[in-house]
């Protein structure tokens, strides 16, 4: 009976260690996202990635393979946007505002 108690303790300790490592990775990922979004150039890069992933566009296409490709890219963009909104929602909002400001200034020059 004592042997089972030791095994159970080891299993619980291993699970707790794994949980701590997973949480540390999540926290590091959030910190990395905050760092990237902490500068205007980082926000421009992320905005471009989201545009390339069709995050803001419909994925409808008459070609099934093309539509699947677009939907996959959009799913990745959605995951990134979700992570950003969780880690730094204010910076995400600022990124959108900066993009609109850039578009407005580009359009006013034309």
Describe this structure in words.
This protein is mainly α and 110 residues long. It has four helices and no strands. It is flat. The termini are far apart. The relative contact order is 0.11.
Layout of strands and helices, then pairs:
Elements: H1 2-37, H2 40-52, H3 64-87, H4 89-109
Helix pairs in contact: 1-3, 2-3, 2-4, 3-4
- Number of discrete domains: 1
Say how many strands there are. Answer: 0
Q: Give the overall silhouette.
A: flat
Rg computed from alpha carbons, rounded to a whole number of angstroms: 21 Å
Q: What series of H and E elements makes up the topology?
A: HHHH
How much of the polypeptide forms β-strand, as a percent range? under 5%
Give the low-confidence spans.
Answer: none
Name the average pLDDT: 90
Largest β-sheet summary: none
Number of helices: 4
Distance between the termini: 81 Å
Q: Which structural category do the helix and sheet elements fall into?
A: mainly alpha
Helix fraction by DSSP (H/I, runs of at least 4): over 70%
Which key phrases capture this entry?
mainly alpha, 110 residues, flat
Short structural description:
By secondary structure, the protein is mainly alpha-helical. 85% of the residues lie in helices and 0% in strands.
């Amino acid at each position: 009976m004592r042997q089972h108690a030791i095994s159970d303790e080891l299993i619980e300790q291993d699970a707790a260690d794994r949980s701590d490592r997973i949480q540390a990775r999540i926290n590091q990922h959030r910190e990395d996202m905050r760092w990237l979004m902490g500068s205007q150039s980082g926000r421009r890069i992320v905005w471009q990635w989201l545009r390339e992933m069709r995050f803001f566009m419909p994925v409808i296409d008459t070609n099934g393979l093309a539509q699947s490709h677009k939907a996959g890219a959009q799913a990745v963009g959605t995951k990134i946007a979700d992570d950003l909104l969780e880690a730094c929602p204010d910076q995400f909002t600022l990124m959108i505002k900066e993009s609109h400001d850039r578009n407005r200034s580009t359009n006013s020059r034309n």
